[in-house]
Design the sequence.
């Protein structure tokens, strides 16, 4: 279950995202995010929904959606976005320091706020200098996990090597690039493939068809 040491990082990244979006023009909220099919407002709504869930509410809502995860996620998203972007952002601030979530390790929620935070920022021309230690922690989680997004399967048979950190993993054709780009590629974001190089890039690109 949750690794308590991850929560301060999660809280920090939620607060940083809220700060970055504080003065966003109204029209910008409808910008397509890096998460395929979702606007930046919808990604934020998803982040807020995750922050507000507990294991009890997760299973109650899953049951109420006929145990269909996608249906539950859609209902959660609608609930968190129906009052408009400013209300969604206010909810992020209100729940930024919550230490509950759906069943699963806290590192998955750290990965979510890093990846979805970037899904939101990049199309808006915003950048976040994530601590390298945080990116390494997220990458170490993803390389071992197929939970929801299939990162482990996506990088199997490849060597990933960071150019801005002393981190590498795997064996096989090499993919090199910045730590954040590797994390995003592990989660299926094809938008960062041009930041990567090496003989394994084409193989990784073929596996980046699903953004999560």
Sequence:
């Amino acid at each position: 279950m949750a690794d308590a040491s991850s929560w301060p990082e999660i809280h920090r990244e939620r607060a940083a995202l809220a700060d970055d979006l504080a003065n966003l023009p109204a029209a910008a909220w409808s910008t397509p995010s890096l998460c395929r099919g979702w606007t930046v407002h919808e990604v934020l709504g998803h982040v807020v929904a995750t922050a507000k869930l507990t294991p009890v509410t997760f299973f109650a809502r899953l049951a109420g959606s006929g145990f269909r995860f996608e249906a539950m996620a859609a209902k959660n998203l609608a609930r968190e976005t129906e009052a408009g972007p400013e209300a969604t952002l206010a909810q992020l601030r209100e729940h930024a320091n919550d230490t509950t979530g759906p069943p699963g390790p806290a590192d998955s929620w750290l990965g979510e706020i890093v990846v979805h935070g970037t899904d939101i920022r990049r199309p808006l021309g915003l950048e976040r200098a994530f601590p390298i230690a945080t990116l390494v922690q997220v990458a170490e989680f993803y390389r071992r996990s197929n939970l929801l997004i299939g990162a482990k399967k996506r990088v199997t048979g490849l060597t990933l090597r960071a150019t801005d950190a002393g981190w590498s993993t795997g064996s096989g054709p090499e993919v090199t690039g910045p730590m954040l780009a590797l994390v995003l590629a592990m989660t299926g974001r094809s938008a960062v493939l041009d930041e990567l190089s090496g003989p394994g890039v084409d193989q990784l690109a073929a596996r980046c068809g699903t953004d999560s």
